[in-house]
Known about the structure:
Layout: H1 3-6, H2 10-13, H3 37-84
Amino acid sequence: SNFTKLGIFSNFTQIGIDSNLSMVFPSEADFVSVDCASDYAIAQEELKKLPEELEPLAEASMFFALMVLAGCIVICGICCCCLCGGGRRSGYSKIGGVYAGPPVEAK
């Protein structure tokens, strides 16, 4: 069968953006062989640059995470100090005459 006439390759042959991207397949071709070595080389070069380009983003993300962690610690500390009151409870007073001896075993 002729793949070009059937439209199977039609979406991938004439992109129209750049002449380097458009490929003309012979009308009588049943199979097409494409060499992607140059595309692979370009992708490899871009991957080599990727760590250098992602480093500032990673540093910013780490800084943001540390600031969020520090903020959570500060807020938890403030909540504990304000709500717990250092173990003191307001509105309570000591009562006299309470047994303060050693524990007593029930019979």
